[in-house]
Amino acid sequence: KQEVTQIPAALSVPEGENLVLNCSFTDSAIYNLQWFRQDPGKGLTSLLLIQSSQREQTSGRLNASLDKSSGRSTLYIAASQPGDSATYLCAVNGASNYQLIWGAGTKLIIKP
Amino acid sequence: NAGVMQNPRHLVRRRGQEARLRCSPMKGHSHVYWYRQLPEEGLKFMVYLQKENIIDESGMPKERFSAEFPKEGPSILRIQQVVRGDSAAYFCASSPTGVSNQPQHFGDGTRLSIL
After folding, report:
1. DSSP A28-42
2. Per-residue pLDDT at A96 exceeds 70
3. What pLDDT sits at residue A107?
4. Do B103 and A34 lie within an 8 Å CB cutoff?
5. In sequence order, which residues have a C-beta less than 8 Å from that of residue A20 and are 6 or more positions away?
6. What residues does A44 pair with on adjacent strands?
């Protein structure tokens, strides 16, 4: 059974710092992995999707990597800003080909 | 190009009432997924539907919950005889097809509160 874990559960850093969020999964048989952002009381915004054949994806200040063999993904945020404060969720698309399995998220606070 | 639309955004029901949650997928998307996020927990898959078909309802409780995606109109998640434990955020996502290389696009969710 696929399980997704995100560490840390919460993170608070000063503005301008680079930071890394971690996601691990127990079954390496995945089709893809997605990183999402969730603001309080709001919906989910897809940030990056990495296919199982890819090693990384970049969008602006965000870079996501995938090491399928070790069951790990990282989300790197460069030059953090207060507007980056949110909960970041990672989800894997496993053997079912559509059912996303979610981590519990990392709550990120960027201090001005 | 409107995204996934869910309504209502907030829904309050008393125990024993029925709750109906609606989801209109993005234009051109014929695949819909429902997820539930319980307080302080991660999202859990509930059901996957295509137009007029339920493909996988393995994540949906066997009793009181049902889902449909008719030929015309939005997808509906229906909860009968609601209980306090049904209080959660319910998210709908859509995709143009069910293949793995396409992301699921999410709505803003419906926050259901049971009094």
Report:
1. ---SEEEEEEE-TTS
2. no
3. 95
4. yes
5. A74, A75, A76, A77
6. A38
pLDDT of residue A99: 84
Scanning B60-99 for CB atoms below 8 A from A yields 91, 95, 98-99
* Tokens describing residue A23: 């996601």
| Cis amide prior to A40 (ω within 30 degrees) | no
Q: In degrees to the nearest 10, what's the CA dihedral of B55, B59, B60, B61? A: 140
What sign does the dihedral A33-B36-B75-B26 (CA atoms) show? Answer: negative
Average pLDDT over residues A78-99: 89
Residue length of chain A = 112
More confidently predicted of B10 and B103:
B10
Considering CB atoms only, which of A46, A103, A104 is closest to B103?
A: A46
Distances (CA, A) of A86 to A9, A21, A93, A96, A97: 12, 12, 23, 29, 28
Report residue B98's pLDDT band, with 50, 70 and 90 as the boundaries: confident
